[in-house]
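USER: If only I could read backbone structure tokens as easily as an amino acid sequence. It would mean a lot if you studied the pair and described how this chain folds. Here is the record:
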Amino acid sequence: MEKNIQELLIQLLKDSLVKLKLDSVFQEELILDFPTDERFGDFSTNLALRLSKLAKRSPRDIAISLIDSLNGQLEGSPAEGFVKEIKVEGAGFINFYLSEKYFYEQLKRIIVEGRDAHKINLGRGKNVLIEFVSANPTGSLSVAHARQAAVGDSLANTLEFIGFKVSREYYLNDEGNQINILGGSVELRGKELAGEKVEFPENYYQGDYIYDIAKLAKEKGVRTEGLGDFAAEYILEIIKKELEDFGVRFDCWYSQKELQKSAKIDSSFEFLRKNNLLYEQEGALWFKSTEFGDDKDRVVIKSDGSYTYLAPDIAYHEEKYKRGFSWLINLWGPDHHGYISRLKASVQAFGHSADSLCVVIVQLATIFREGKVVHMSTRKGQYITLREVLDEVGKDASRFFFLMRRTSSHLDFDLDVAKKQTSENPVYYVQYAHARICSILRSASFAPRQDTDLSLLKEKEEIALIKKILQFSSVLNVCLVTLDPYMLTVYLQELAESFHKFYDLHRVLGQHDALTEARLSLIDAVKITLATGLELVGVSKPEKM
């Protein structure tokens, strides 16, 4: 099939809505769910329940109409022969039951084509720019930045896998007040090292790393006015190394300083003036963001002549579109939530759709050690850094754990659990399943064959494992719709659990018959799927443990 079964069924549902003249009242995203109880099919939708109030009809009545339409459309469609039955159950749920033919054919595709069988071309080559981390170069990356890095990189991996052309970008805030404060911090620590007694302001950076920079600046004879830039460049190299060791790469490091030097901010303001979207009031320059849904207009140039944060951001985001990106995704911390509406207003002012800019808010993480919260204070330098987490638990556990909650949820990261080499540690559990399969296949000198009779796989655990493998493409679709790779970590744990359950109950090696061949093929498909999922979340796939 060119499209996966979920895509086909969703399209059939959309066509049925049009046929029944219900499409005008339903504008939401259509996603098929996996029923928690396998007795209720392989896919399920509550579409009829959601339509009930809008269409002023009972859910079951709508569900029956939709099913009649779906059955009529199945004939001659690519999904024909793969859908065994469609039922309305419960209060009005529509449940899809897939045929054994579908499961065996798709399993064979994975065995023959490998990881490419899981690829679904949802992106169609669309250019996407994902901007993430973008921490000020004023200190080492915190765990909050680390979580954004893990989410952003894994999301980029996933979007690339499903057909988008993705670029990763780090917006470098390398000028302004924070850099001035950084320079002042280094200057005062330098004086302190020289024996002077200094009064250190509360808002200055107080970590031990400031002493290191002050010593180095003195050795290199850096002048006072250049301390901020010197310190920022020094810290940026540390940040780049931390991200490299974390397995995160960027295609572009975009400098705000260079943006300010260019004429791009003035050019963007000139466009807004020509379109009557700027005005002066109380000595400041205001952007008419309320014309695009913002709750109030926003200042872009203050009365003292300095830019607000929004001014360079307007120019920066317009420049993203000019570079050829049609979809912009920004990952921000929770303190930026109120900033979304004004930035969406700015992209609309330049003629772009509000939906072409998506902002994902990544909630904070709390680090636990020995059952206690590790408290953090950025200014005083008393916080757990990405480097500390990497040194303590390693890249694999760090990346996996940072993805184990929805980005919209606060994350509790237990360092002690992340270090365990037992099934209690989720990443170890998944990697062990991959290594265990590699060991079995090595022992059997297994090589995949196209003529393997997969229909011999009839045991409950075998069918459950096949179904779990084939859910992978649907999970990728959920990651796209939600812009959140979290579901990959859930899925990988479920797939590992399904494999372990199968292998503990059914003999694979030692029989040398057609069933053995089928079971080896089955676990080979599990290995391919686990490896692909681990690659997307940026975790290694060991063959021995």
